[in-house]
Structure formats: structure tokens, C-alpha cells
Amino acid sequence: MMNRENRILILSGVGLLALTMFFGFWYAIFDEHQTLNAMGFALATGFMEAAGSNLNGAYEALDQYGALSREYRQEIHFHGHFAFLGLTAILFGLVAHTLAYGERTRVGLASLLAVSAFLFPFGVFLQIGSLQGLGKIVAVLGTIGLVVSILFIVVGIMRSEETTG
Amino acid sequence: MTSILADTTTDFLSTRASRLFAFGGIFLIVAGMLLGDVFAIFILHPNNARIGETMYAAAMAIPSGDADTILGYFQAIGGFLENRGTKVAAHTHAIAIGYLAVMFAILQPVIGWSAEAKVRLAWTFVLSATLLPFAIFTIHYAGLAFSPLSYIGWASIVADIVGLLVAIVVTLQLVGLWRHFRSGGAAGPLVPALGAPGRLLLAGGSLLLLAGFFYGAGYAAYIEYRLHPGEVEILRNIVSNAAAGQSVDADFGAFGGLLAFQGIHRATHAHVNTMGLLLLLFALVQPYVFLSELWKKRWARVLVIASFALPICIVLEFRFGLIAGGAADISGGIAIAAILAFLFGLVRHTGVRDDAAKQ
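The joint structure predicted for all components is written out below.
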């Protein structure tokens, strides 16, 4: 039988992957090309306004490019980190029962990793819109949870005599 | 090995669906890594140089007030960026979906669907997952030719369709897991005792993954946010100096330095993490690699060393430039060789299992 810690991580990992794949599908059709075109247009406008001796217009266009570039990076980070953390959760889910801790600690670490794996990319996503402050807080909380859970899981793997099986 | 052959309930290579996922996944991983190596050698650096040269030419056109020429330069830059972006996306999607396919192979004993349904899902996943990076790769070359839409071409449409199919299969695997767990379906440990080579890979992968998390957290906290306004500031300096007829060489030097800084750190972070996942993944399949213990240990050591060397060489590009980049490519090539050795051992295992089943 698979233990609770295995189930928590495997189910949440596959769930995260499904979620990020549907996001990727939506994003590729409805947002990515439009954002990239707008970025290119803003950057070109910055140079063309400068060529027309309108430096204020150029700065405005370049600021717009900066904002779009930041938005694009965060969307890509959201998609990529969701996928990567989903894969990590599944892999650790396959060996979670062998960690050199008691059952409650194993379940606690699995739950912390599963929740943090959702919180961190979600925090990055929130920073795209008007909830930047909240997004940063959520992302930082997710990062702390990830670092703590991964650290203890790795120590648990290293100390495990059984490893698996 | 005998005990593994005797156990048909957890041997992840004992069913057609598992084999499809496993071998399709390893094919995708190797193809994605090869694409990454070729991309790094032949496209990345020349393409970056072309982008820098064209943007410099656009800046040089500012004093003459020639907006049409500037627009032409930026259209060319858009093409260069698309060329680079689609190669990177094909590389990362092939590897990530390949990892997932191998994980699904291991998880098949706890997926609550019939054997026939599992095979159909495996075929759909492997075919769609193979088409996805191929379609992404061709986006740059197909362009908008014969496209029914004004902003995306046929290659993008195909990529979106197969991407959706992959997402649907992943969701159905999740439902299958849920059905199995709810029914209280029995299954032994999905991964048997790993042995020494597996433990080496597990330890190496865990350490790399941990390092990757700290690297990413540190980069985000101390570098990413602090340097973010730098790009727009430099661009402002470029246009204002060009408009005033002054030299923009120093500004372009700063711009190139900033892009290299961001690019190398992001590539290091991504490769530490993906190579960590690779080691963990191949640790879990070691019990099914039908090679002698000696050769399994040798190949495990080779893969661990190559996986650590690859991101280290990338970060050394700050100091040694293309020489370190070349060393990173060689590390990637060595990692591919080790994966192919393990693939050979897995294929041998299926032959031995099939023979044992006949007898």
C-alpha cells in the first residue's frame, strides 16, 4: 500500500502539472503572442520616438516595454515553476515513505512541500496584476516552505538506510 | 534481479503502457538534451551577437530620424528572438514532458484504468508529447504561411492542439490515481530497493536539487529584484545619447553585460534543477537496468559527474566565456551517453522479462 505521504505528493504533483498545462494552452493562444508583439512594438516605438526628437515619448514607450517584459517573465516563471515543482513532488512522492523520520513528520513534510509548491508560483502569478504586494508575500512564504521541506526531505533521504523498498 | 522479474505487479516495465511511457519518455529526454547541445553550439551565441549588432544599428539610425529603417531593424530583431525562444521552448518542453512520461511509467501500477485504456492513454501522450516540441521548433520557420489566423501560424496551432491532448492525458492519469486510491487498491512499493548505483544517483540528485532551490531563492532575492530596473535605464541612456549624437558604445557594453548576467544565472538555476531531477529519475529505474553492478556503478558515477559539471561550466562562462560554454556542451554529451547506457540496460530487462514470462 502507498502511504499518506506518498499519496499527498504524487496527487498534488500530477495536479500541479495538469493545472500548468491547461494554463500553458490558454496562455499560448490568448496571451503570449500578443504580449511579445506589444513588447516589440513598445521597444521599437522607444527608438522611433527618439528619432523624432521626442525623448519623453521614447521614455514612456521604454517604460511600457519594461512593464511588459516583467509581466512576460513572470508568466513564464509561473508556468515553468509549476511544472518543475510538480515533477519534484512526484519524484519525492515515490520515495517519501523511506525518509528517516516518523510517520507524522513524513506526512507534515509532504504537506508542506505540496502547499509550498502551489504557493510559490501562485505568488509569482499574483504579482502580474494589481496584487503585487500580496503576491510577493505569498511567493516568499512559498519559497520558505519549499526550502525548508526540501532541506529536510534531502536530509531524510541521506539518513535513510532503507532508501526504498 | 530474479526477485524483480518475479514481481509483475510493480515491475514498471511489465506492461505495454509502462513501456510506452518509459521508452517514449527517455527518447524525449535524449532528443531534448541533444537539441539543447546543438542549439547552444550553433544558434545561441551567434544569434545573441546578431541581436546586439542589429539593435546597435537601430540606435545609429536615431540621429538621422529614419523611423522606417529603425522599424525594419526591430522586425529583424523580432525574428532573431523568435528563433531563440522557440528553440529554448522546444528543448525545455521535450525534457520536462520526457521526465513526466518516465514518472507515469513508474506510476502505472497505481493508475485505476483498464489495461486497454492505459495503453490508449500512453499512445496519446507519447505521440502528442513528441509532436509538441517538434511543432514549437517549426514555429519560426513556418511563420504565418497558409494560417487561418492573423497572429499565429499552423505550427503554433498544432503545438496548442497536442499540448491540450497532453494536458488531458495528465488529467486522466490524475483521475486514475484518485480511482485507485479511493478503491483501496493494493500495490507494493512502486520502487524496489535501489542498490548502490541508485543510492549514488539519489544522493547526487537530492544535493543538486537542494542547491538549485537555494540558488534560485538567492538569485530572486538579491539579484533579480535589485537589477530589474537596469534594463530600462540602459535603454533610456541608449536612445538619449544616440539622439544627442553621442557615443552609445558604453551603453551597449552595459546592455550586453546585463543580458549575459541574467542569461547565465537563469541557465545555471534551470540546469542545476533539471539535472537534479534527471539523477533522481534514473535512480528510481536502476533496479530495472539489466547491466552488471560494476557497469551500473560506472555509468551512475559518469552521470553524476556530468550532471554537476554542466551547471558549473555554465556559471563559469562569466570568467572563461565560450571555453566554459564548450565544456558545458561536452558535459551534456556525456550525460546523454550515460542515459543511453541505462536505456540499453532497460531494453535488455524487457527482453529477459519477456523470456521469463514465456517459460
